[in-house]
């Protein structure tokens, strides 16, 4: 897989994974090409990496049009909303942690259109995290009540 990252998520990862102890996860993340939405590509160091231009939607469409490994977007809530708004996600994996924070950042920006997904699989980790994999099936059909 390769990674699609917003700049803040890239910076968080670049501070940890290059110096993390060797593991299958660290090795995979460090080897993956990181496609980064950024206005400061000259400051990227955790590679391999490729910055894409100011048009995020066109940049993602260009990446997806090329042959290559699966493209995984992790974190990057602002980028996630853009990907979903423009129908650029083929699958969504939701990780539900057994923790209640109370308040926090919204997962989707206001105006993100409704989308329909079909459940493909679920997995529960030993720590209680539930991973739910969904594939995109189209726009959500809503039924409005008669007036």
Description:
- With 147 residues, the chain is α/β, with parallel strands linked by helices.
- The protein contains 4 helices and 7 strands.
- It has helices at 7-16, 24-31, 56-65, 77-85, and strands at 2-6, 34-37, 49-52, 71-73, 91-96, 115-124, 130-139.
- Strands 3-2-1-4 form a 4-stranded parallel beta sheet.
- The longest helix has 10 residues, at 7-16.
The amount of beta strand, in percent, is: 25-35%
Largest sheet: 4 strands, parallel
Distance between the termini: 49 Å
> Segments where pLDDT lies below 50 for 5+ residues?
none
Helix and strand run: EHHEEHEHEEE
Task: Give the C-alpha Rg.
Answer: 17 Å
Record the strand order, biggest sheet. 3-2-1-4
Structural class by SSE content = alpha/beta
> What is the share of helical residues?
25-40%
**How many separate helices?**
4
State the total count of DSSP E strands.
Answer: 7
Shape, per Cα inertia axes: globular
Q: Give average pLDDT, whole number.
A: 86
Keywords:
globular, 7 strands, single chain, alpha/beta, 29% strand, 147 residues
What is this structure's SSE topology?
Blueprint: E1 2-6, H1 7-16, H2 24-31, E2 34-37, E3 49-52, H3 56-65, E4 71-73, H4 77-85, E5 91-96, E6 115-124, E7 130-139
Parallel strand pairs: 1-2, 1-4, 2-3
Antiparallel strand pairs: 5-7, 6-7
In brief, what are we looking at here?
With 147 residues, the protein is an alpha/beta fold.
């Amino acid at each position: 897989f390769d990674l699609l990252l917003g700049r803040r998520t890239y910076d968080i990862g670049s501070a940890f994974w290059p110096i993390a102890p060797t593991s299958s996860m660290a090795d995979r993340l460090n080897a993956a090409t990181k496609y980064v939405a950024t206005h400061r590509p000259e400051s990227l160091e955790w590679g391999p990496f490729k910055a894409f231009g100011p048009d995020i939607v066109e940049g993602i469409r260009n990446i997806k049009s090329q042959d290559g490994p699966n493209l995984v977007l992790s974190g990057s809530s602002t980028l996630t909303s853009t990907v979903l708004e423009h129908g650029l996600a083929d699958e969504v994996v939701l990780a539900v942690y057994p923790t209640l924070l109370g308040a926090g950042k919204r997962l989707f920006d206001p105006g993100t259109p409704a989308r329909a997904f079909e459940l493909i699989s679920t997995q529960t980790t030993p720590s209680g995290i539930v991973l739910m994999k969904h594939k995109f099936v189209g726009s959500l059909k809503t039924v409005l009540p008669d007036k």
